[in-house]
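Incident log, structure service

09:12 report received: a user says their structure output differs between two submissions of the same chain.
09:20 pulled the input from the user's history:
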Amino acid sequence: MKKGMRSLILIILVIAFICFEGLNFPKVDQSVAAEPGPVVAVGTPLVKRGDFAAIVIMGTGFQPGQEIRILFTTPDGQQADIGYALKPEPKPDKTGSWFTTWDASSFVKEKLVTGGAYKLCVADGDYRIITHTPVFFQPEKDKEDKNKK
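09:34 re-ran on a clean worker, output below:
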């Protein structure tokens, strides 16, 4: 009798759980997966250093018309807003996509970029980081190596 009563209580609990929780199934038109966040990519991930270093930067998944800033981050964590060196100004279109070109030649001439991996961060108008991407500057060969060739 005890087994029968336990089984009956268990069945009632399962049915109650299904009735209360099972009614909240997502509808077919509702998205179950999380929406991906904004993505940024460098069109020229390997930059050969020289007198001119142009880097194509693009992004998608941003809010249309959102104000964005691009920050150059050195390996020691220092950041600089490079908006003055971007053409055109990065502004997400109606699909949330944008592109720009960064003339990094002044960073190379001032030896702020010496070679190796660096990080570009995309931030909102209040400088809150949204996403980031790496960019690699090929180190310049020593002058001695150039003279040997």
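09:41 both user submissions now match this output. Likely a transient worker issue. Closing.
09:42 reviewer note: Helices lie at 2-21, 105-109, 143-148. The CA atoms of residues 10 and 16 lie 10 Å apart.
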